[in-house]
Structure formats: C-alpha cells, structure tokens
## 1
Amino acid sequence: MNRKYRKTVIAGNWKMNMLASEVKPFIEQLKENMPKTRACDVVLCTPAVMIPTMIKAGKECKVAAGGQDVSKYEKGAYTGEVSASQLADIGAKYCIVGHSERRQYHGEDDMLVNAKAKALLAKGISPIICVGESLEQREMDLTMEYVDYQVKAALNGIDATQLRRCIIAYEPIWAIGTGKTATAEQAQEVCEGIRAVIRKIYGARPARAVSILYGGSMNAKNAYELLAQPDIDGGLIGGASLKPVDFATIIAATNQE
Ligand code: PGA
C-alpha cells in the first residue's frame, strides 16, 4: 500500500452466494469485528438483486455496495442483463468486470471487458477490472506479457480522468478459490508490472494514483503480508468475504503503517 498517493480498497466478491435476508446479520457481525477507524474503503460486490439491501445495511458502517458484472449495452432487448444506469440508479458505486469466472464460463474477451468498463465509467461507477494469468502461462513464463496485454486492452480508449475511477485487480487464475495464494513477492512483482504498463500509457502521476488490488485466496492469515507490499493497494476477496470475522481481519490489516 501507499496511502500517500492512492486509496486502499478492500472489496468482497460474494459471487453467487448468500441471500438478501443474510445481509443485515452479516453486516452486524462485520461491524462488531471491524476496527473503529480504518484506512481503507470497503465494498461488497453482491449479486445485483442484493445491492439495495447491502446499501441500506452498510450505510452506518460505511460499507459500499457493488455489482459483479454489467451489460455493455445502455438499454434494450437484452434479456437477463443489467445495465450500468440501472446499477447507478440503485446506488452501486463499484462493479467488477472481467472476472476470470466470467471470462471462462461466459466467454468474455478483452474487448468486451473494455466495453463494460467504459459503460460503467459513463455512469460514474468504478470498474474493478480483473486480470491474471493461468497456471500454464505462469509456468511458461508468460505472466507479465499476458497481464500487460490484458491491462492495455481493458483500458483502451479510457482517458486519464476516467482512469482515476478505475481499480485494477490482479487475480492469478490458479490462486482463485484454490487456497493457493501467490506469495507476497509474486503478487508484488505483477502489481508493480501493472503499474509500469499504466505509467507507459498515462505517465507517472496517473499511474501512481491507481489502486491495484490482489485477489486469489487472500484470507485473514495472509492479508497482512500481501498488503504490506508497496504496489498492492488492497484485495478482491472471494471465500473469506463470506465470513464476517475473517473479512473484518483483512480490513484491519490495512491499518498497518
Ligand atoms: P477467492 O476469490 O478469494 O475465493 O480466491 C477471489 C475472487 O475470485 O475474486
């Protein structure tokens, strides 16, 4: 983290878990376990149907709500989709785009991820843009090359002013939901690389101001060390964000100097 230049963000990704009726009890437990003062923004990205409940429950302890996906279209005959204006209208402040599960199970490519990020920015929502390599790519030493490409493609046509609203999440696919975390050094190396790519496109100042999160089996035990890295500005947390005590511990880990 480097709080002098950029925001620290702890984002939970509930994926397709939990029920609206479980939101309030979750937030109450989170509140009990969270430090009174904290050095980060907290957001929970829930299934879209739970966003209003999350906003209501999270207000008092400043937990924002986010979506997990968005349509690239503004409106129209796209059955099952949710638009950026609809997310903005109910009060979502963030939305994940390009999560590897969407890329893998729904065939999303970098162009679509870029279009979705732009759709969100147009409505004032911060996209949390996910990038990350497969195990095969890591073993072939292609990590940085691939992640570079993903970052460039996702940010294509986004100007420096809009970049300020963007958050990048580095999530190595092999670490997601597997219990296998990247080491703090591996995660730092790629996050530093991502910042370097952004520097090349936008220059030093905008690059310094972008929050880059790590995601992939971040938990109450490893969060402190990961967050101690200079280019890791927070986390995108799946499994551990479903457990209020663990999620609170991760939030508390941002209070380090
Ligand atoms: P995980 O998920 O923390 O359960 O590995 C992270 C994510 O998919 O964003």
## 2
Amino acid sequence: MSNKTFTLPDDLYDYLLSVSLREDELLRQLRRETATDAMSRMQVAPEQGQLLALLAQLMGARRALEVGVYTGYSSLCVARALPGDGRLVACDISESWTAVAQRYWRQAGVAERIDLRIAPALETLDSLLQSDEAGRFDFAFIDADKENYLVYYERALALLRPGGLIAIDNTLWSGSVIDPSCQDAETRAIRAFNRALHTDDRVHLSLLPVADGVTLALKRA
Ligand code: SAM
Ligand code: CA
C-alpha cells in the first residue's frame, strides 16, 4: 500500500504539491508524528486529504461517514469541511491510533463534530441502519480492511441520501490489481470490488488515479 500519487514521476509529484497543496501546520504536524509509526503508509496522501475536503464541500456535506480512521488525517480534512453543526461518524477498531486522531481533532477545534465509534465498522454501520439513519448521510469515505470493502460499500450506499457520494481508497492497490501473480486476499477483494462497481447501476462512477486510486460512486438521485 502506498500513499502518494504513485502514477506520477517524483519530480512531477513534487511540482503538483508545490502549486496546489494547502496543508496547514497542524496537518503537517500530524503527518510528521504519524511518520514515526511503522504503519504510516496507511495514512492518506496530503493531496488526497485536500481532495476529500473539496469533495465534502462540493457535496455541501453536513453528515459524513468514515470507515478507517488510523491517526486521523482524512477525518480531520473532512471534519473541517463540514459546517459547525455537521457530524462525522468515524469508525475504527484501534484505541491507540485513534487516540492520536482525537488529540489532533481537539487541537483543530473539530472534536465536537466527530462521533468516534470503536468497534468493527460493520457493527457500527448496521447499528446506524437500525437507528433509522438510512438515507441521512451526504458523504462517506471507505479506507479500512479491504476484504470488507463490498459490505462497507453496501451499508454506506444505504446510509447515503440519493445524490450522496462515496469515496473508496486504494482501488488501484499500487498496481497489484493487474498483476496475476498477486493472489492475496486483499488484492482479490479489491479486484472483486472494482468489478462489482463497474456494473452497479445504482451509482455514477469514476476511478481517479489519485494517490493509490480513489473510486467515486455517486448514488443516483
Ligand atoms: N483514512 C486513514 C488516514 O487518513 O490516515 C487511514 C486508515 S488505515 C488505511 C485503515 C484503518 O482501518 C486502521 O486504522 C485500522 O485500525 C482500521 N480497521 C481495520 N479493520 C477494521 C474494522 N474491521 N473495522 C473498523 N476499522 C478497521
Ligand atoms: Ca488508504
């Protein structure tokens, strides 16, 4: 798993960042702190965090969902793009990684907007559906265990309003999706996910070669 936009040569990627990245000191600090963690490659790329914020703004999102928080970079980007009374339901199973996230959410003044649920994401999504939250979310970002992408997508689609947007990360999986020798469970799950979305008429679809591949699925109105 990589985080930077791997389809670009390094010098062109640096140029892209130099003319478009608007990362502030707090996000930079979060990236620096996360870089000390052995799993830091899981963090979204900074230009991708900025894209997620822009998408949330574009959607006029008030209610958002995130599956896979880690140390909080993407959730911080999305939460900041919500209005003051907006709400982000953030799902993860790790107390320790999300403790870092919570520290940054507080420093950014967005902790009140974020409802962190520490539990397997499927349980959280099902409990939202059972609490009559279906059709009430504007935006979702899926970035957790790849084997469950299709079930997260189905739950997120039910939770979104018509016209709502789901962004799904790592759908190019560093190119492994086209390498027949890669037959591990994660790669197979991503291939199956991509195939399923290709013919899913419930959404408008685009796979962006940004970062490690970001699929956008817009729920038909
Ligand atoms: N979006 C994050 C960011 O910007 O830094 C990166 C998320 S990281 C790729 C994946 C996260 O999914 C990890 O924090 C992991 O603990 C979480 N995760 C893995 N399995 C999960 C599950 N079954 N339910 C909820 N979260 C899970
Ligand atoms: Ca990811």
## 3
Amino acid sequence: MRKIEVGFSPVFFNVYDSPNDSIVVIIDVLRATTAICTAFKFGVKEIIPVATIEEALSYKQKGYLVGAERNGLKLDGFDFGNSPYHYMGSNIKDQTIVLTTTNGTQAIETAKNAYKVVIGAFTNLSALCNWLAKQDKSVLLLCSGWKNKLNLEDSLFAGAVVNEITKLSEYDEISDSALCAKYLYNMAKEDPDRFLHHSSHRRRLAKLNLKQDIKYSLTLDLTDIIPILIDNKLVKMKI
Ligand code: 3SL
C-alpha cells in the first residue's frame, strides 16, 4: 500500500505508520536542502550531515571542510555557512564537506534509519518527483520547519511534490497532511515568493540581507541530482 504523508516538522516523524519503511524526503528549502543540492550541482563528492556544532568542530580539527550555520548565520571558524552561494566555488569539487544547520541537518538525523532518505528542494523538484513516482514505496515528506515548528516554505514545497507525484503515479492513500500541503501549494504556485512574503523565515533571512538566497532557493529545476543518504553520508544518487 503506497501512501503519501507530510510531516510538517520533524516532531511528526514517529507519528506516521512505519516511517522507517518509507522514502523520506528531507525538506529545508530556506536554505539547507537548497544548499546541499547546489553543492552537488557544483561537484561535491559527499556531504556528512551532523546535528551538533561539537561534531562539526571535531571534523574541522581533523582537517575537513565544514559548513556550520545557526540562526541564519555562518559560525566563526568554519569554511561555509548555509547560503547556496557558498557552495558554488571550484574549491568544493570532488571534496567531502561536513555540514551542520539549525534545522535541516537535525531532520536528517531524525530520519536517518528510514528505508531511503533523499534531499528535496525547488532546485531539484522535477528530478525528485520523477524518481519518487517510479518507486514502489510510501513517501513521507519531512519538513525541517523552524525549531520543531511548522514553517510555510517547507510546507509549500511538500505541496509541490504531492501535486507532481500524484499526476505521475497512483497512490493508494493521500493523507490529510498531503492534501493540506497540496491545497496550500495550489494557492501559492502562481507566485510563491509573494505568498511567502510575510513568512517568518523569509523575514528573518531578508533582515540578514539574504534576499538573493531566497530568490535562488525558489528557482525550479536547476539540477537533476538527487542527494541520498548512504551510511550517514549524502552522495549523488545513481539513477
Ligand atoms: O534551519 C536550517 O537548517 C537552515 O536552513 C536555516 S537558515 O536558512 O540557514 O537560516
């Protein structure tokens, strides 16, 4: 039985039937999952997501390249923050990067024992949906939210995925959470940027002068790479 569910924040993970038996899509469009997709587009070999700053620091001390963000800001002493623009340089090609972010890498940690964990962003939407629709598995769209609270942009992206995959394939059950996200997306799809105008994280990033990150993160289909978690490392899925 193939179902589609949306977890509007990581705290919903265990609420769903057998989440560890589903494909879990981690969503943090502003900005962690967009930054991850960007790093793969620019040739990173693998990304090791870690939940804590202490873990990130210990990798840094071992000589790894490390991205670290809290509350939207790059942490001092690390190589990158969480802007997709930090992951566009030739310095990341074929490298291993360690990454910790406020919410996105926590959501990955929550879901790490699922059947498959993949990364979703507007920048890989079509590739992700085409792949999901071909899998004989239930899908849990897990929004990273903000400190365990729902946020609008991740919910919107979850709705975009529900919208697409239900056009491409038949699912046995589309949960109320999935319908809710889809209805939200259908209200917003003509102008997602405008729809998100009053959202809390958009305002937070705008205050930090990160409007170009928002614009980039809402751009569709810049890459067909789907990052997948294998042995606690994100790598480029072989399709
Ligand atoms: O929460 C996260 O993981 C980040 O995406 C937050 S921020 O966009 O870097 O502020």
## 4
Amino acid sequence: MVRNFRKGLFATTAVFGVATALGASAETLDEVMARRGLTQQDLVAAAKTYTPTGGRDEFIVFSSGGQSGQIMVYGVPSMRILKYVSVFTPEPWQGYGFDEESKKILDSAKVDGRELHWGDTHHPALSETNGDLDGEYLFINDKSAPRIGVISLHDFETQQIVVNPILQSEHGGAFVTPNSEYVIEAAQYPGVLGRGYAPLSQFNEKFRGAVTYWKFDRAAGRIDPKQSFAIELPPYSQDLSDAGKLDSDGWSFTNSFCAERYVGGIENGRPPFEAGCSQNDTDYLHVINWKKAEEVYKAGKVTMINDFPVISMQTAIDEGLVYLIAEPKSPHGVDVSPDGKYIVVGGKLDTQASVYSFEKIMKAVDEKKFAGTDPYGIPVIAMEDALHKQVALGLGPLHNQFDSKPCVVYTSLYVDSQIAKWDYCEGKVLDKISIHYNVGHLVAMEGESEHPAGKYLISLNKLSIDRFNPVGPLHPQNHQLIDISGDKMELLYDMPVPLGEPHYAAAISADKLKPLVRYKYGTDSRTGEKHPDAVRPGQERIERDGTNVKVYMTAIRSHFTPEIVEVNEGDTVEFVITNSERAEDETHGFSVSTYGVNLSLEPGKTATAKITADKPGVFSYYCTEFCSALHLEMTGFLAVKPKGYVEDQTAMAEGQQYTKDDYDKQTANNVATQEVIDQVVTYITGRNYQDFPEVVSLVEDATDQLNFAADAKTKAEDAAAKEDWQNATLWAGQWWQYQVKAADIGLRAKTYLDEHGAVKTEQ
Ligand code: RUQ
Ligand code: CUA
C-alpha cells in the first residue's frame, strides 16, 4: 500500500515528463493549420479566446436560460460554461427542488396555488452600487408567470422568488435602479389587475398594464414585498424597461407595443393580432418618476389589489408620475446611456433607432408642454419635443448596449441579422457586422452600467441554422463573441447554447465576484443561516416522535453516519445531512434508492431529504458524487420494517473474521504511511506556504483529516487492548482511510507550491 502511495507520488512527476515529451513531437502550427483548413485570421481569433488549462476568464456572463427557467453562467473570452443556476425549475444535481430547503423556495413560487415546474427567464440584472455592478446579487424575471428570482452571488444559489400579485404576465423585468433600491417589473400582456376576469369586449375599460417596483433589502439580500408597490398603466402591452441613472436617476422608462389595444379574434374572421398590433406608426414610451411614486405610495395614496398597493392611473396623473412619448414602431429595447442623458429605443418595424434626450423630456414636463393626452388622460409629450436624434440603422433594431468609448452604442438588427455600431451623440453609423442568425439581445461587458467595460460584445442569436453539427430539428442557439476593442467589430467565436432560448445576459468583470469556497459549518444555503438541525461528527443520532423519524447525519469521505436507519412502514423520515468536510470541492450527494430524492451537499452545507417510507423493504442510500476512491462504499441501508414485524435475530452478521495478524499488518502499513505524510508535511512547511491562501486552506483540510485519523487510531488501539481483533483491524483500516485523504490533500498542496514557485524558508 505504501509502495502504491509512493508510486503515486512518482507517477505525478512522470506525467509531467510525458507531457513535455508529447509537446516536442507534436505537429507544427503550420501542419495543424493545413490539416484543419485554418486561416491566419482563425488563429488570431483562437488566440484571443483560447484559455489554457488552469486559466481564468476576464468576464463572467449570466445568461437567461429561456424556457429552462434557469440561468447559464459562462466565461468570456473562453465561452466556457461554468454553471447552470436553477431558479424556477427543479434541478437534481444541485438538489434544487429535491431537498426540503429549496422546496420551500419553489413552494413560495406557486402562482394562485399552482405549482409551476418551469419559467420563461428573459432578463437577468446584476445588483448595482452607485450605478456600477457590485457582484453581490442577481435578479431574473419569468415572463410566463409574473415572478422575479433573487440569486445570491455568494454561492450562486436562488434564495427567493416573489410572485407578482396583480399581473398575469410580465416582461419588463428585471431591471435595477442605480443602488438596487428597486427591481423593476413591468407587465407584458394586459390583464385584469389581480388576475381577475372581465369580458374581452370591455378590454379598454377593464384591462390594464402596470409596472411594479420591488423594494430590495440589501442587508437581508431579499426583496421586501411589504415595501413594494405598483403603478396602474393603460392596456398597452408594456415591454422592456430601464432605470435612469445620474442625470435621470429617479426615473424609469418602459416601452410598449400594441398601443392600438387590439384584442385579436382570427377565428371569428377578424385580422390576427400581428396585424391589429402593428397598424399605427407609433406606440408609447412610458416615462415614470419612481422617486416621486415612492413618496405617493408612502403617503398611502394607493388602492389595494390582492393585498398589494397600487397607485391608480388617476393618482399617477394627478401627482405627475407618468408621461407618454410616441415612439416608432412596435418598439422593443429601451436603454439609458451610461451618463443617463439619453434613452435609446429600437423600433422593430422601423429602420431607425430613436434617441430621446432626458433634458428635453424634463423641459417639456416642467413647462407642461404636451401634445395632448392619451385616451386615459395621461399627458403625451410630442416626439419632436423629446427626440435628440433618429438614426437609420437597418431592419429590425431590437436592443442596445453601450461601449466604454463615449457615445458608442451597439444595436441588434433582428431582420438584417447584423449588429450596428453607431454614435448616439452625433447620430451616425460607425460599423456593421453580420451575425448568424437573427440576433435578439446583445450584451457588452458591464454594458448597462455607468462605466461599461468595452472589449467584448456577445450576439445572442435566435437561430443557428447551419453553424453546428446537426442534432435534430431542434437546433441549439448561438452566442457569438465579438471583439469590439478596435474600430471594426471582429467575430471571434460561436458558442452553441443547448438549454433554452436565452434572451438577455448580463456580464461582469470576474474580479468583482467573490463567491464562497465552502459554507460556514452547518449552513442552510437557501436562507444563508445556520441550519437548526446541523450536527458535528459525534453528535449524529436518530430521533423518533410518533411516526416522524429524524436522522441527524454527517457526510465525509467516504461514509455517512449513521449507516443503518431502521424505521417502520408508514413513517416519515427526514435525513438532515451536514457535509462535515472543509476540503474544497468535496461535495457529497445523497439519494435513497427509488425514493426520488437527491441532495447536493457542498462542504459545510446542511440539507434535508424527506421521504415517506410507504413500502416495506431495505433500500440503499448512497452518495451521488464521485468523491473519493471509496465513493462507491459511501452507502447505507434504510430498512423499512413491515407493520407488526418482530425481529428474531439481533447480532450483526460479519462476512469476514480478522485476527491479531491482520491488525498488526494494517498498523505497520499505517505507520509507514505516516512517514510519507510526514515527508510531505516537512516539504510544505519548509516552504513559504503561508503566502498561498489556497495552500493554507488545503493544510487546514489535511489537518482535519489527520485529526480524524488520530481518533480512529485511538479506537483501534482501545479495541486491540481488549483483544477485539475484529474492531481493532477495521478501525485501523479507517485510520488508514483518513491518512490517505490527508496525503491526497498534501500532494495537492505540494503540486500547487511547485507550480507557483514557492521558495524554501529558513527552518
Ligand atoms: S426580449 S430578444 Cu425578453 Cu428582446 Cu427576448
Ligand atoms: Cu461522497 Cu461519493
């Protein structure tokens, strides 16, 4: 065994040797280019995106996962997918919707008592401090059911879902104000507020849109529905939104389409929605003073709908909260420039993008210079009184993103399958690039903050047609990475997206994210608090209260404690499991065969698997993450005894008998192993390992394991003193297991030090 371990040490060095040798005999660059048909330009693009092993990305992108109800996390420029964060949809790998803690979140996400197993995520928004991304929280909307998810970027887990009490559908979310005071959520398809009924013949009178301002409580890391409110709006299909910043801070902007208020009815011979909703040349941009609306709400001038405070349209008009401006034609994206002075709108059926001046809008408001009112009495500002520029870009302008260079904006052109780079101050087109195919949103690095980072732009395409190997009629979608550092845009990379139709994405500088490596011992990750039922090794137990059985369990490489749980048919069994590891990336899973539960237990996390033991039998539980060489052995039995069963034998059957010889052999092996560990320890402590935080935590992990080893050693020696060779041998074996884990961690630390140029220290 020791020899194997030494061989392991040796093998590590040998592997490095082989890698070098391979490098020497590999094809030349020219040969590879010829073989794969690559051009010089391809090589430059590859060099700009390729990230060697161990390398990191400069930016992290949070992309909506569309109909998957999830969020996708990937790095730029490598475009490597790092994680899917489950939000509205159960996801077994992360235990989301399979452990009791996350089920509570999905429970709170029910709409009208209905459990929803998916969401249509569109627009992620990163939390902001003073208009810049701070890397703490992420919000995302569900268009299908009006909901907002809150994700903590401390662990990339969903912590809250709020359900909008008045809307039946939404789209203009999530967008945050510059200090994340509010998360904006605007309606999409009009409805009767509170999700009630009215005949469609009364659409104009009874149907409404609205915009909701969800108050974000930063200290709690949660939306506070008790401090949130909405404003009633006309039944124009409200669309995307954005919050003002700097000059326009305190205001928010929401687009609309189908201001024609058409209700369809193709089956009765009426023209379809698409005709009725695109007849007029203009729709309305809603300009809303949210700071003032907050005062009006706090003064109690609200109507309660489903227990939710709503500022009525009349109050909004009386208090001067809402103004409308005509915008061409079937608009989609509305984006406020980094300095807050301009609002850029793309009209899907217009060839132009429209740039509105906030200063001009305010002038019209102050001078009460209105072109009239809409049918509901809301003042309408004439387009010419608010417009700064209109620029012909091409067909189907949708969304806009800002560059780090002043006045530069990028707009997606859906119909043309192009992205236009243009100057919104001067109103001129600077460059265009073709993409494949039909771009929806686009995302520039930190492109919606007060200080965009430039460098890269990603085109989030709706179709991929001929870009990838065919995988059946449902194609992946295509995120295309574009270099925007020069004057001309340069296409670098195609990334197939096989999760759902991504709409928007948000990108942040990677160094702003500071996620945890391990949880504080015994954390309920969904509340961020200490789990009331977390136990430390030695405190594990099984408690029964009537027919409710609670198993207080720990998990560590590579066993659960306890390993045998006996219950009666019909009992409810809760396994509350704490991963007692401190080692980085040592996640354990937990599943009970045939019972439909799976946990993800990252180091320090506590989670609960709850089952009803409704069928007599003996069921294995096991770890579902390959966590060590003895991962398959990380198992136990749930014995469900039939009703009225009486046991006739109590002594445990042993498959194998051990002698003093076995014990001596095992302990001799352990003593030799300890010598190797000591050598590694001497190596590490003889270097400046304290200067490497990664190694310091590895040393902590290894020390943990060595303490467990010492504990098992004592147990072995106690049993040996009683000449109980059975238990003495097995505990000595366990002692060795802990040694192996300590050695494994020690080796990781040693390799790290070697690779990072650690130096010898004076002893
Ligand atoms: S919207 S592109 Cu939510 Cu543009 Cu989809
Ligand atoms: Cu723990 Cu596999």
